[in-house]
Amino acid sequence: MAKVNRNYRKLPGSYLFSTIGKKVREYSEAHPEAEIIRLGIGDVTQPLAPKIITALHAAADEMGRAESFRGYAPDLGYSFLRETIANKDYQERGCSISADEIFVSDGAKCDCGNIQEIFGIENKVAVCDPVYPVYVDSNVMAGRTGDYDPDTGRFRDVIYLPCTEDNGFTPGLPWEVPDLIYLCFPNNPTGAVMTRAKLQQWVDYANDHGSVILYDAAYEAYISEEGIPHSIYECEGAENCAIEFRSFSKTAGFTGLRLGFTVVPKKLAVEGEALHPMWARRHGTKYNGAPYIVQRAGEAVYSEEGQSQIRQQIAYYMENARIISEGLKKAGYQVSGGVNAPYIWLRTPDGLTSWEFFDQLLARAHVVGTPGSGFGPGGEHYFRLTAFGTRESTLEAMERIQNL
Ligand SMILES: Cc1ncc(COP(=O)(O)O)c(C=O)c1O
User: Fold this and answer.
1) Contact in structure between 372 and 344 (CB atoms under 8 Å)
2) Measured from the CB, is residue 200 less than 6 Å from ligand 1?
3) 8-12, 123-127, 168-172: least confidently modelled range
4) 156: number of CA atoms within 13 Å, CB side?
5) This prediction's pTM
6) Rg of the Cα atoms in the chain
7) Are 167 and 194 in contact (CB under 8 A)?
8) Which residues pair with 247 in a beta bridge?
9) Class of the domain covering 53-302
């Protein structure tokens, strides 16, 4: 008789954004006149930049001609894109990453969910608390986390790294040595960043203890301050202990187009076994490549015109972030993030739980955000707003919140 993967039963409740969607739907049905502003899900609102659209059209035309038609893409990505990424994202920043260490994919979510497959089931995983849920849930599904403890809101075999106001929402080194360490900076959900010096401590720690860092840099394009690393490979020795994930979603508005990549340095080995060929094998077996036209669009992001256009979009969102941060501060909220990341992390007022605040904000301001507790117990009494709305809706949301 067939058996299900019982690890799935350990996953508590429904996916955070489905719960939010259900609550908003129910509220809308009961109050059809309410004009709801959504600053919850981290999805972009600006259209793709003209340079990217031109590249998509040109690539689509190529696909319609026998002499330039392309079928399956190379498993690891077209070299025109991998070379461009290696050069612009890494070599120009002084990181010695080459094109053959880059694996192009359809986005960072799949890669950071799938990467755990190349590691043994007995690895001990560490995550930040609060955390982007994919890192935890993908390890739950694989059977690496132990059971969920409803009293603590934590899985018994996972090491949680508290990210609190006291440590600026960046974790200190753990007391128990993890084998796999998920770090994400600039951070979703807190909007915090890690300085190069602090990230270097983590890299040194991982190299000293034989741990691997799984570094999610999906929001690096939003870094505005000096001294904040865009890549973990800006730290010395990171090629020996770290895998990095990147996404075009928030950098260039590809949430619907789908494109990302993962860097697995050739030097990176565990138990004397290189991880690069393992990930290549996994990628080649289970994945058939991002579409040609999307990879051409990705290449266009790095052109001079593409860079100038996406910089304008990022500046637009970061102006929203400024409006939200300042608006909330004026209204008396305690706020962080929003400077090097498109997320604003605020403390709920009057000791309200994250979900109580969610309900209150929806009912009284018709503004939707994301309850911090949805990202782990460390997010309780916090709330996340995103800068990805339109300017008009962002201004309107702040006006409503200030008038509460
Ligand atoms: C931290 C983090 N990593 C990865 C992703 C997913 O990116 P992609 O759209 O490339 O799958 C997101 C999306 O919200 C994210 O917040």
Assistant:
1) no
2) no
3) 8-12
4) 7
5) 0.97
6) 21
7) no
8) 260
9) alpha beta
Per DSSP, the three-state class of 223 is coil
CA 369-374-379 angle, to 5 degrees, is 90
Decide: 342 in ligand 1 pocket, CB within 6 A: no
What are 386's two structure tokens? 């995103």
Please state which architecture CATH assigns to domain 14-43+305-402. Answer: Alpha-Beta Complex (3.90)
pLDDT of residue 17: 82
Report how far apart the first and last C-alpha atoms of the chain are (Å, whole number). 58
Separation of 216 CA from ligand 1 center, angstroms? 8
Q: Which atom of ligand 1 is nearest to the CA of 255?
A: 9
In tens, the pLDDT along 337-349 reads: 999 999 999 999 9
What are the boundaries of each domain within the chain? 14-43+305-402, 53-302
Question: Are the beta carbons of 349 and 332 closer than 8 angstroms?
Answer: yes
Does residue 259 have its Cβ closer than 6 Å to ligand 1?
Answer: no
Torsion over CA: 34, 40, 46, 47 (sign): negative
pLDDT for 8 equals: 95
Q: Please indicate whether residue 246, judged by its CB atom, sits closer than 6 Å to ligand 1.
A: no
The two three-digit tokens of residue 371, written as one number: 């309850």
pLDDT value for 271: 96
- Give the per-residue pLDDT at 42: 83
- Ligand 1 pocket test: pick from 41, 44, 109 the residue with the most ligand atoms within 8 Å of its Cβ: 109
CB-ligand 1 contact for 247 (6 Å cutoff): yes
Contact 115, 278 (CB under 8 A): no
Residues 384, 189 contacting (CB under 8 angstroms): yes
Q: Distance, CA 320 to ligand 1 centroid (Å)?
A: 20
Residue 326 has pLDDT above 80, yes or no: yes
CB 39, CB 394: distance < 8 Å: yes
List the beta bridge partners of residue 149: 154
Which pLDDT value is given to residue 274?
98
Burial-class residue 288 by CB neighbours within 10 Å (0-12, 13-18, 19+).
Answer: exposed
Find the mean pLDDT for residues 14-34: 90
299's CB contacts (< 8 A; 6+ apart) are 55, 80, 81, 84
Closest listed residue to residue 191, CA positions, set 356, 26, 340: 340
Q: Average model confidence (pLDDT) for the chain? A: 96
- Cβ–ligand 1 contact at 251 (below 6 Å): no
CB 42 near ligand 1, within 6 Å:
yes
